[in-house]
Structures are given as C-alpha cells and as structure tokens.
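Hi there, hope your week has been kind to you so far. Thanks so much in advance, here it is.
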Amino acid sequence: MDLPGDVITAWGKVVKTYEQGDMGYVELEIGLKNSRGVESTKGTAVVILPKRGGARVLYPFPAA
C-alpha cells in the first residue's frame, strides 16, 4: 500500500521484441515501487510501434 508522502518510482523492463507484418512489438514488465522499497504495483504491457516507412498504427488497435 502506498501512503501519502511516499515517493513512487516507476520501472520497466523489456522482456521481448519482435516484428509482425508492418509493426514492431515490445513486451514489457512494468511496476511501481514506493519509498520503502516495496513493489506496490506490478504488471505487463505490449507496445506496438510502426516500422520506419511502414503503415500507421491504428487506434484503437484491432485485437489479434
């Protein structure tokens, strides 16, 4: 639990990168740590990026 006055630090770690069609994908582990060093929030994310000279990324991105 984070308390008022805690300093919150966000972190992220790249787990995997790959290309699929005209897009580049980056899979991440992400989280928040409070000032006591306790990881209060943990999650995952996928970032989808256009390849140089490729198609635009549609928003919302169509589910696979």
In short: Strands lie at 9-20, 23-33, 39-50. The chain has a mean pLDDT of 90. The two ends are 35 Å apart (CA to CA). DSSP finds no helices and three strands in the chain.
